[in-house]
Write a structure and sequence with these properties.
1 helix, alpha+beta, 3 strands, three-stranded antiparallel sheet, about 70 residues, about 25% helix
């Protein structure tokens, strides 16, 4: 059992290093984006959507961009 102690310490150190080195949050637009669903005709609101992401949806009607980023439809 004593032979495994250095490996356990090394693994714990690597895990701690990865915890500090990896970013903890993704970039997201701040605010809300609202669109009208094509079938239900109800508004759908996305809160703080991720930047540079593509969201596939069925929309038909008014949209409102109240985020800190530009939106391309």
């Amino acid at each position: 059992m004593r032979r495994h102690i250095p490996a356990v310490i090394a693994a714990a150190g690597a895990a701690a290093l990865l915890t500090v080195a990896v970013p903890t949050s993704a970039h997201a637009a701040t605010g809300t984006f609202t669109y009208t669903h094509a079938y239900t005709k109800l508004p759908v609101t996305l809160n703080n959507p991720a930047d540079a992401s593509c969201i596939q949806t069925t929309a038909n009607g008014p949209t409102t961009n109240n985020t800190s980023s530009n939106v391309t439809l």
